[in-house]
Design brief:
Layout (H helix, E strand, L loop, with lengths): L2 H14 L5 E5 L3 H6 L4 H6 L2 E6 L8 E10 L3 H12 L3 E8 L5 H10 L5 E6 L5 E4 L2 E3 L16 H22 L4 E4 L4 H17 L14 E6 L14 H8 L6 E3 L12 E3 L6 H6 L4 H23 L4 H37 L2 H13 L3 H13 L5 H15 L4 H14 L7 H9 L14 H13 L11 H10 L22 E7 L4 H12 L5 E6 L5 H21 L1
Parallel strand pairs: 1-2, 1-3, 3-4, 4-5, 7-13, 8-9, 9-12, 12-13
Antiparallel strand pairs: 6-7, 10-11
Helix pairs in contact: 4-5, 6-7, 10-11, 12-13, 12-14, 13-14, 13-15, 14-15, 14-16
Length: 566
């Protein structure tokens, strides 16, 4: 089962069993969870005439409406609910929670329901945002917390871990599976999350997780973003990843208000593989092929438009009126993708991204320190290259050659500081401290493990199909290791005495610190290849380089102020 259909199923069940006019009441998290799987028009079809947030201050009485609440079971939401049930505005109250409730919370609600307006209280485990069939996120706002030692801010770190554990347990409850759990040995936070998730699944809620046993248990693997800091720093050249990198995607929506040419009705557009056939078939295409496919779509549309101009009889007119909604929808879709690709082209040209990206890919995929140093130095001197691109280039160089050429790395940092007014000293060093070679488990550059060295040599001999998309995220190797049964216990230990017998058929990989659309693409392409193992990817947020750098900066600021306070 894919995650999007599990969530759609939950929302459908909530709404269709309650007849009549309804108001849907959500919180700041469940509004995202619902909006990525259900459009407004679909909600209308289910007789939802109003959507409100649980913390809205509206006092208007609407006793003709039935209230359907879908909330995370947080103490804050329970307090809102308690007050609202005590003074009911609606005729009936149907309460659905996205995760496991505490007994005390149920008692609080029961005590508040003096007028007996609550018809039902249920748990529907949709505590994650399924942005694609095999990709989910938790949209955690304070994502930088995972980079800080536990002593710096214990309560924020605990909140982070709790939210991740909630999300992971909900995914497995929605999939009706109980996994064996493994984690990345070098990451304290991955271990902590793995232990807490195991406690819920195997001790506290063992009855809930008592599903029909499959011959081979699914696998939950928890890894740390800092094991592959390269992927979120790279420019992207496939459609979905590129839109997120250069414009930004939030809950499958793209905000085009800051783009000069965006039409009035396209200030915010939806990019969803579930709702848009063109996007579904092109989301993983590289930019060159995408341009060709858009041209084909425009040509096809112009043919339809031409035939619509040729209206001569009443029958033609009736046909046109019948087909008009479809025609209009097509028109909106064509103009949306044309606007998007035009904007991507413009940004790539302005920031000279083809030039920058070639060096980035070399730093990520190929050896040759002397040539790399020269290329980065030249780009730092190039006035067309933006400050953020300069910073990313130096970071990519630092991650690759921190041990080989510390003197030249120093030269690059000095040059960066002199060229970029925004550069905050120590940013590159902080990244190395967080995610340098001494901290990493995986073979990030394919130069530690004999098998990987041989693979890279073979790739070098064969040549690369596209220089801009030659990088493969570390996750690709991890998936390969899992499907071949080669994921080493020493590097990825099991929790408790639950071990894997044989190759798992279902695997959820959760990245603490966030996923990228490049990794989601690797997962989707792997799943399409029918290897016998199906992967689902999840993370605390979906990163682009801007968000990754912001998290680094925030963590560095807190770490600094913590040192000066001591």
């Amino acid at each position: 089962m894919v995650l999007t259909s599990a969530l759609r199923d939950y929302v459908t069940r909530m709404l269709q069993d309650i007849s009549g006019m309804k108001v849907l009441i959500l919180d700041s998290q469940t509004v995202s969870i619902v909006s990525v799987v259900f459009s407004q028009s679909e909600l209308l079809q289910k007789e939802v005439f109003l959507v409100e947030l649980v913390d809205s201050t509206s006092k208007e009485s609407m006793l003709h409406l039935k209230a359907v609440y879908f909330l995370r079971p947080t103490s804050e939401n329970i307090q809102h609910l308690r007050r609202q049930i005590a003074n009911p505005r609606f005729g009936e109250y149907h309460l659905f929670f996205s995760n496991i409730m505490k007994d005390t919370q149920i008692h609080v609600l029961a005590d508040s329901d003096e007028q007996e307006v609550v018809q039902q209280v249920q748990e529907f485990y949709g505590d994650f945002c399924a942005i694609d069939p095999y990709h989910f996120t938790l949209n955690f706002p304070l994502n930088h917390i995972y980079m800080l030692p536990a002593v710096v801010d214990p309560s924020s770190l605990q909140n982070f871990c709790d939210r991740v554990v909630d999300g992971i347990t909900a995914v497995f409850l929605a999939l009706k599976r109980r996994p064996v759990i493994r984690y990345q040995r070098t990451s304290d936070i991955s271990k902590r999350i793995a232990q807490e998730a195991s406690k819920i699944m195997y001790e506290r809620e063992t009855g809930l997780f008592d599903f029909r046993r499959t011959e081979i248990s699914p696998l939950l693997l928890i890894v740390d973003r800092r094991d592959d800091p390269v992927t979120p720093l790279l420019n992207q050249w496939t459609y979905q990843a590129m839109v997120h990198e250069l414009i930004g995607i939030q809950d499958n929506k793209v905000d085009l208000r800051n783009i000069g040419k965006a039409p009035k009705d396209q200030q915010e557009v939806v990019l969803s593989s579930e709702q848009d056939a063109f996007f579904k078939s092109n989301m993983y295409e590289n930019f060159g092929d995408l341009g060709m496919n858009i041209k084909r779509m425009v040509d096809d549309f112009q043919q339809i438009a031409k035939s619509n101009q040729n209206i001569q009889t009443i029958e033609d007119m009736a046909k046109f009126v019948d087909n008009y909604p479809e025609y209009r929808k097509k028109h909106g879709n064509v103009s949306k993708h044309v606007t998007m690709v035009t904007e991507l082209s413009k940004i790539a040209e302005e920031r000279k991204l083809m030039l920058v990206s070639q060096t980035e890919q070399d730093l990520a995929c190929n050896g040759g320190q002397v040539a790399a140093f020269e290329a980065v130095m030249n780009l730092l001197s190039n006035d067309s290259v933006s400050d953020v691109d300069r910073l990313r280039l130096v970071m990519l160089y630092a991650l690759r050659y921190e041990k080989e050429s510390p003197v030249q790395l120093m030269q690059l940092c000095n040059k960066l500081a002199s060229r970029s007014a925004k550069y905050k000293s120590g940013q590159v060093q902080f990244l190395i401290k967080q995610a340098g070679v001494d901290k990493r488990t995986g073979d990030l550059y394919g130069n530690r493990d004999l098998l990987n060295i041989a693979r890279n040599m073979a790739r070098g001999i064969k040549g690369v199909e596209n220089v801009y998309t030659q990088h493969q995220p570390l996750l690709f190797q991890t998936m390969e290791s899992i499907t071949k049964g080669r994921l080493r216990d020493v590097e990825y230990p099991f929790i408790g005495n639950h071990f894997q017998q044989g190759r798992p058929q279902d695997v959820v990989i959760f990245v603490v610190g966030g996923t990228t659309y490049e990794e989601a693409r690797a997962v989707a392409l792997h799943n399409a290849s029918n290897s016998g193992t199906r992967f689902i990817l999840g993370g605390s947020v979906v990163l682009n380089s801007k968000r990754f750098l912001k998290d680094l900066e925030e963590a560095q600021r807190i770490a600094k102020s913590n040192i000066s306070a001591v």
